[in-house]
Amino acid sequence: xxxxxLRWKDYEMRKGFTRKxxxxxxxxxxxxxxxxxxxxxxxxxxxxxxxxxxxxxxEVVAWAASNGDRSENxxxxxxxxxxxxxxxxxxxxxxxxxxxxxxxxxTPRTGQAATRAFFGATVRYANAAGVERVxxxxxxxxxxxxxxxxxxxxxxxxxxxxxxxxxxxxxQAPGSTEYLTVxxxxxxxxxxxxxxxxxGSEASSKGVPRRRQST
Length: 215
Description:
By secondary structure, this protein is α/β, with parallel strands linked by helices. It is 36% helix and 18% strand.
């Protein structure tokens, strides 16, 4: 297997890129509601891809092209494929940033906006068995189940929206129905995992000696 292919496989496993929304968490048309730290992560990834990763991969492609027959040059083929992937990701990120509608959970609120669950709220609720859970309602680009960050368009997010402490809401999940009681709604800073340069990226591999590939 070519040297570059091994790096990309490692890169895909380690990548910290903001993922695209899953099928049940579609990127909503029009405005892309997002927290300040979520937007920062998109901007950091876009900057990394555009100013560091793409130039590094372009350099690899140029190096691979100098090794001979491009049709049988694995590094060249993998590099060109990765460039297409990077360009697609850059376009995706640019569209998400252009549509971004930033909502800061720490902005002072009054009236129902302060007591009911809207985008950016952190909600504590209990299920019918009395088991409590705390979740933060964020954008589709910020979902992180390990941090209990849920999308505002997910089934749970939709169920909790506009609810207030003491309200009972119905969660319609695939194959089941749950009844939840809202215990607390508050607005506080939501810490989104920042973008980290992937260890397997080509930009992080600069300086590694390259060898001429045989076919």
